[in-house]
Amino acid sequence: MTASTASIWTRRTAATAVAALAAVTVLGATAAPASAAAPAATTAAAQPATSGTAGLKGVDYDTWQRDVQAVVDRATPYVTERTAHADGHKQAIVLDIDNTSLETDFHWAAIPTPAVKPVLDLTRYAHSRGADIFFVTARPGILDSVTEWNLRKVGYPVGGLYVRHLPDLFEAVSTYKTAKRAEIEAKGYTIIANIGNNTTDLTGGHAERTFKLPDYDGKLS
């Protein structure tokens, strides 16, 4: 997340948290713990954006989807090859959340926020081939349960979710995310792919390959 998007991100996530908590209360649901089985998968298709819809900063939805798909198309053969040669080792894919895993800027008030479908398809494919899926986000810890509920609700297999608690809130985003990838490696995983839409999601190592989704010079957080 860039400084120029911080205020928008704060307003958006606060509104999302309030709406999500309200929705969960109304439905009589609670956020699923990490050990719980994921609910039946739904995808971004359940709440599609209208063709040509713009995000918070005027990014065209259809263009964004095509650009995301182009990155996923490059990543898929690599994931296929890499998961075919796990050789008994635990493999992981690490993802950012906002505008990487979830269509946050296009559906910032939607509950649940729809998945970025090409990324969802890739991660479910990787998971079917034995890779565990981890999410490392700069969202604050107060959004932990709501975020995990959203991810599971739209169909993501969640092997782990990292949000920022104290003292992480005072660290640079790239430093925090690098440290969390190192924690995943310390659990015995090889991170075969790290996917995000900002350089702060991807710098610092602790991943064999990185795949950057479009952010259009910071227009998508």
Automatic annotation (TrEMBL):
Keyword RNA-binding: no
Protein name: Putative secreted acid phosphatase
SUPFAM superfamilies documented for this protein: HAD-like
Entry keyword DNA repair: no
Pfam families membership: Acid_phosphat_B
Gene3D superfamilies: HAD superfamily/HAD-like
Entry-linked InterPro entries: Acid_phosphat_B-like, HAD-like_sf, HAD_sf, TAT_signal
Keywords, ordered alphabetically: Signal
Domain of life: Bacteria
Signal peptide annotation: 1-31
